[in-house]
Amino acid sequence: DSHTQYERVGADVTMKCGSMDWDAAVTWMANGTDIDESHLNGSYLILKNVGLSQSGQYFCYEGSSWHRKYQTSLVVGTPPKEPVLMCRSNNYPKGFYCSWHLPTPTYIPNFFNISVVHGTREMVCEKDALPKNRCHIRYIQLFSTVKYKVTLTVTNALGKNSTTLTFDEFAIVKPDPPENVVAKPVPNNPRRLEVSWQNPSSWPDPESFPLKFFLRYRPLILDQWQHVELSDGTSHTITDAYAGKEYIIQVAAKDNDIGTWSDWSVAVHATPWTEEPKHLTTEAQITETTSTSTSSFMPPPTTKICDKGAVVGSGAVAVCWTAGLVLAAYGVLFI
Amino acid sequence: MAAADSPSPGLRRRDLCSRGIRLAGKMRSDVVDLLDTYVEWQGLDASASVAAVEGVPVAAVERWDEQTGTQRLLENLAAYRTFRALLAQMLEEQQEQLGEADTALGRALASVLLQVSAFTYHLEELLQLESRGTPSEEVDVPVPPSQLGLFERKLRGLGVLRELAQWAVRSARDLRQLAKPSPGSSSAPGPDESP
């Protein structure tokens, strides 16, 4: 005779050895180990304040013959707490889905039953194969003021619990984030970044149900985001980027008229275009090195012999080099 | 070939649709604000459940995506003509309650009534363009029974405004469907237009 016995964590459990009398001589074993006699009351096995670790197979053997008289699978768990239920339409106007989970595990099998009522009409929520704990409903009516009432009941061997959500058609509309966000520098524009993205593929009809977008961006070195709301189009040019700084950019979407904003898209990084550093000749490299070493002598501010940034051609570089030598000579005199 | 100063029917339709969409958007936003004002003025609970009110056009529709352009326009027109009469009734009741006093609620009601009238006219233009003609203006607005108490009338007003807010959203969607160039629609683009 094999049984499964579900008991609550913390309960006191008494197991009888099948039909054996109380005063029969028996041996109890659990998971291959003899159970100490201190846990026995006659032939009854007493487990006080059971914990999860006491789940397992329990066997009872008749004392002399070692015939197995009783076998049970003890499963220790908890009754379900109030489940967490969420409903959302990411594919408006086709329908919506509801998904649920338990806030804490019960350690024993749970069964979920969901009912959806719209006014007086009972609707069928079709279970999804994956993910589990999710079902979807096709809208029969649109633009209704009548609320939907979704009740989820969870039952296991130790108890049951339920939760109810009431909402209207518009309130649960929340698109998925925009897809394929791309950010690129704009050639010859050190303060611009071109951002483009696509409507989420789950949104079935962006032409009749257009989305609006929210773009946020910031340089990695700062915490403050800049925000831009865009009522149409799937691209935008940032024109106030800090030159040379790497940016992080994200986009969110919302139906133009109803519902709430999507989560932020996957973040993309981009750095605005910067001018390529000039490639100097060997003579110029030596000249530059010399000028740099004399700069520690700090020529007076008015004596702007050469501006490094203004060095363009080899002629100007030669002038700088000469001036540097003169300054070096003065420097030596005053050491 | 169309005269230079008169746009082709297809372009006119698209133009009317986009203006109508903007009108519907503004109307919805103002109705939502009016709802807040109404609830506050009438001392109602914003989440109060209101049963379907007799004579108020219900925005809820089945198989919305299967409707033809003409169906959409006719249903919208019938609805907004009724709302025009209902809002006028509400404004009158409001004035009866508070006399000639200029109230925020009165002004908001009047503004929405104006927008509903404008939108109705817009729909009539669109229907004319569809060459369907405009149905005769017979609106059957049930006069609230005199035994309706003040509270019941307030709830009725709440129902009217809530349904109008839904209609404003539906109308924008309807006009976007209408604006789509579709060979199967009741009004396909003319030969001199590209979709």
Automatic annotation (TrEMBL), chain A:
Subcellular location: Cell membrane
Biological process according to GO: positive regulation of cell population proliferation
GO annotation, cellular component aspect: ciliary neurotrophic factor receptor complex; CNTFR-CLCF1 complex; external side of plasma membrane
Annotated keywords: Cell membrane, Disulfide bond, Glycoprotein, GPI-anchor, Immunoglobulin domain, Lipoprotein, Membrane, Receptor, Repeat, Signal, Transmembrane, Transmembrane helix
Its membrane topology: Lipid-anchor; GPI-anchor
InterPro entries: FN3_dom, FN3_sf, Hematopoietin_rcpt_L_F3_CS, Ig-like_dom, Ig-like_dom_sf, Ig-like_fold, Ig_sub2, Type-I_Cytokine_Rcpt
Domain Fibronectin type-III: 177-277
Statement: the UniProt record of this protein carries the keyword Cell membrane: yes
Location, primary (coarse class): membrane
Family: Belongs to the type I cytokine receptor family. Type 3 subfamily.
PANTHER family: CILIARY NEUROTROPHIC FACTOR RECEPTOR SUBUNIT ALPHA, CYTOKINE RECEPTOR
Protein name as it appears in the record: Ciliary neurotrophic factor receptor subunit alpha
Lineage: Eukaryota, Metazoa, Chordata, Craniata, Vertebrata
Name of the gene encoding the protein in the UniProt record: Cntfr
UniProtKB/TrEMBL annotation, chain B:
UniProt entry keywords in alphabetical sequence: Cytoplasm, Developmental protein, Differentiation, Growth factor, Neurogenesis
GO cellular component, one term: extracellular space
Region of interest (Disordered), ranges: 176-195
UniProt GO BP: astrocyte activation; ciliary neurotrophic factor-mediated signaling pathway; negative regulation of neuron apoptotic process; positive regulation of axon regeneration
SUPFAM superfamilies, alphabetized: 4-helical cytokines
Tagged with keyword Flavoprotein: no
GO molecular function terms listed in the Swiss-Prot or TrEMBL record: ciliary neurotrophic factor receptor binding; cytokine activity; growth factor activity
Major localization class: cytoplasm
InterPro entries from the UniProt entry: 4_helix_cytokine-like_core (IPR009079), Ciliary_neurotrophic_fac_CNTF (IPR000151)
Protein's cellular compartments: Cytoplasm
Protein's UniProt keywords contain Cytoplasm: yes
Compositionally skewed regions (Low complexity) per UniProt: 181-195
Protein family (similarity comment): Belongs to the CNTF family.
UniProt cross-references to PANTHER family, sorted A to Z: CILIARY NEUROTROPHIC FACTOR
Purpose of the protein: CNTF is a survival factor for various neuronal cell types. Seems to prevent the degeneration of motor axons after axotomy.
Name of the protein: Ciliary neurotrophic factor
Originating organism: Eubucco bourcierii (red-headed barbet)
Phylogenetic lineage: Eukaryota, Metazoa, Chordata, Craniata, Vertebrata
Name of the coding gene: Cntf
